[in-house]
Specification:
mainly alpha, 80% helix
């Protein structure tokens, strides 16, 4: 399916069925904002650590929770319930494993960027505009592999809940196979929502309660289409 077809399908599925997805997004937003507020402005180190841990846990859970909810939403013509946010312990553990993997990769790349930029500054006679531009270009170039990796692994949350028999490594491998030749398509799909995202700013962020489900369902339908095509190729 093309990007336009996926978005049209998602809009047709959401028509008359906005209530539950919007409420789900509202609950997630409130919980995230509350924990972020506690983490940022608490003077107690204990509260800071606890709220940060809960914030990470919430992100790990909702990564697969959203995937499961919107898979059910698409498969049942909008009849998904709050209960569909609940997933198995196995799925959550795999989501935790993926988070840990991406965290380690992020740290390694961060160290490389800091080391490289520090070396450029130390070995240069003075900090010039050209050097600053060079550092920025280097950082952007180094971020490209991160974006490619994130796109390659974008289907893993859906695989975690849709194919629970697969372990973490096999799920990652399957996502990479499914996204081979499709990473640009997903990148463009994400870019196509930028206009709506900018408009949502004018609503003080309230519009994101509707935009969020629209984006999530479009990506979910993208996964379903990829999965169907992948099964046909495998057969």
């Amino acid at each position: 399916m093309t990007r336009v077809e996926l978005k049209q399908l998602s809009k047709s599925q959401l028509k008359g069925n906005w209530k539950t997805p919007v409420l789900v997004m509202l609950v997630y937003t409130i919980a995230t904002m509350a924990l972020s507020f506690m983490s940022e402005f608490s003077s107690s180190m204990g509260i800071y650590l606890i709220s940060t841990i809960f914030l990470i846990g919430l992100a790990i859970w909702f990564s697969v929770g959203f995937a499961n909810f919107f898979l059910r939403f698409s498969e049942t013509d909008g009849k998904a319930k709050f209960d569909d946010l609940l997933v198995s312990k196995k799925s959550i553990l795999k989501s935790l494993g993926l988070f840990a993997l991406m965290f380690v990769i992020g740290i390694v790349l961060g160290i490389i960027i800091v080391f490289a930029t520090s070396s450029m500054i130390v070995f240069s006679e003075s900090v010039s505009t050209g050097m600053i531009v060079g550092v920025l270009i280097f950082a952007i170039v180094l971020s490209i592999p991160i974006v490619i990796l994130e796109l390659a692994l974008a289907m893993t949350p859906y695989i975690f809940v849709d194919k629970e028999e697969l372990g973490l490594i096999d799920s990652i491998k399957l996502s990479i196979k499914m996204m081979k030749g499709n990473k640009w398509s997903l990148f463009v799909i994400n870019l196509s929502f930028i206009g709506w995202a900018l408009l949502c700013i004018l609503t003080l962020g309230i519009g994101y309660l509707w935009l969020g489900p629209y984006i999530q369902l479009t990506i979910t339908n993208f996964y379903i289409d990829l999965d169907n095509n992948f099964k046909e190729i495998s057969i």
